[in-house]
Design brief:
206 residues, alpha/beta, Rossmann fold, 4-stranded parallel beta sheet, globular, SDR_fam, oxidoreductase, NADP, Biopterin_syn/organic_redct
């Protein structure tokens, strides 16, 4: 349930074609519609993304698919994050940036070269942000195996039968709900027991 004191605004845009000017326009509309006096925190959660092509590396020969994957999963994120910082820093004393990452970006997994490479690139991008902007709180949060459409895509579409079987077993046993992992992320942010730029996995705080 959403707190009635919270105003929710939604904007639809095509992250396959990221444009800084479009992100700027959205933030300007938002800031023009709210009272910014007394704002203490500016928070952004980078969770938009796509699983990519689920094939072995030698079959990843579609350059258009590669470009679209990185446009959505890395380039749009970097542009949006830059605009967020420039627009919100003047009105919020403390900025918090959360990047939703994945174990697949740190541990090689069959058929997940496209997905994992994007996650790895994003994670490093935000680690660099943390050292360049030490006053910004940056968290790379790895949510664990979560019951989402992505999970089903791997089970149904992966080239590797071994990978399909592995994910199916997790889905039937230890998969997490979105509520479980979001609550853990909020707990980590509230406790603040991490160094800015750190990668924290769901299971690191069990």
């Amino acid at each position: 349930m959403v707190d009635k004191s919270i105003t929710v605004q939604t904007y639809a845009l095509d992250l396959l074609k990221p444009e800084a000017i479009e992100f700027n326009n959205i933030f300007e509309k938002i800031l023009a519609s709210v009272d910014t006096a007394g704002i203490e925190f500016g928070l952004i959660f980078h969770n938009a993304g796509h699983i990519g092509t689920l094939k072995q590396t030698t079959d990843l020969t579609d350059l258009k698919a590669w470009r679209e994957y990185y446009d959505l999963n890395l380039f749009s994120v970097s542009l949006l994050n830059s605009v967020f910082i420039k627009q919100i820093r003047p009105i919020a004393p403390q900025l918090v940036v959360v990047n939703i990452t994945s174990l697949c970006g740190r541990s090689p997994t069959v058929n997940l070269a496209m997905y994992g490479s994007g996650k790895a690139a994003r994670e490093l991008f935000f680690k660099v942000l943390a050292i360049e902007e030490p006053k910004i709180i940056v968290l790379n949060y790895s949510p664990g195996p979560v019951d989402t459409d992505m999970f089903d895509s791997i089970i149904n579409e992966a080239q590797s039968e071994v990978l399909k079987k592995s994910f199916k077993e997790v889905k039937e046993t230890t998969v997490l709900t979105t509520e479980q992992t979001v609550n853990k992320m909020l707990e980590i942010l509230e406790n603040g027991d991490f160094k800015t730029g750190d990668t924290v996995d769901y299971y690191d705080r069990i």
